[in-house]
Design a protein that fits this description.
Chain A contains no helices and eleven strands. By secondary structure, chain A is mostly beta strands. Chain B is built from no helices and eleven strands. The chains are: A mainly beta, B mainly beta.
């Protein structure tokens, strides 16, 4: 599959569960991102990995834990989530260049429901 | 603080009519601005970016630093333009701040 893929596409979990979201990019990019898209709120940047190093953590609660084992894969580990964490979680990737802002390429998202 | 404002949540136009989506931003540096689009059942994708100065699918957007705006325009809307449109501001070359989005419906 080409582009940015995310699994699972849908996830329902209880507040005591532990689960992980997976993102894989097939574009040869060197930066990856996690975004949260809630109803009635703008898309929010959660984490940024640049050359596998985390460069941004936008005050995200510790119940969300990212992992980037290599430049093609990105995970979001979830534990003891709250119902308000229910949202669409989007992964994106880009090629960090030497000038100008990157164009980001998005995955289809994982629809997460926390019961 | 909200850096990107899209004042219209919903926009409905007739096919063939002009359409304009408003975007205002707040940023003290040199802004780089984008429009992303999400068609029904498709992923979010780049429509255009201001530094490219190009027209994509008939859409154009001009950066107005005096008015801190980056409005998206198309002279003749088509039914396939129905989608959710997001204005985004790039900070530090890689962080994107998105507006809340505008849902456009083009009616026949």
């Amino acid at each position: 599959e080409t582009g940015v893929t995310q699994t699972p596409r849908h996830l329902v979990m209880g507040m005591t569960n532990k689960k992980s979201l997976k993102c894989e990019q097939h574009l040869g990019h060197n930066a990856m991102y996690w975004y949260k898209q809630s109803a009635k709120k703008p898309l929010e940047l959660m984490f940024v990995y640049n050359f596998k190093e985390q460069t941004e953590n936008n005050s995200v609660p510790s119940r969300f834990s990212p992992e980037c084992p290599n430049s093609s894969h990105l995970f979001l580990h979830l534990h003891t989530l709250q119902p308000e964490d229910s949202a669409l979680y989007l992964c994106a990737s880009s090629q960090r260049g030497t000038s100008g802002a990157d164009t980001q390429y998005f995955g289809p998202g994982t629809r997460l429901t926390v019961l | 603080a909200q850096r990107v404002t899209q004042p219209e949540k919903l926009l409905s136009v007739f096919k063939g009519a002009p359409v304009e989506l408003k975007c205002n931003y707040s940023y003290s540096g040199s802004p780089e601005l984008f429009w992303y689009v999400q068609y029904s059942r498709q992923r979010l994708q780049l429509l255009l970016r201001h530094i490219s100065r190009e027209s994509i699918k008939g859409f154009t957007a001009d950066l107005n630093k005096g008015e801190t705006s980056f409005h998206l325009k198309k002279p003749f809307a088509q039914e396939e333009d129905s989608a959710m449109y997001y204005c985004a501001l790039s900070e530090d070359d890689y962080k994107l701040s998105f507006g809340a989005g505008t849902t456009v419906t083009v009616r026949a």
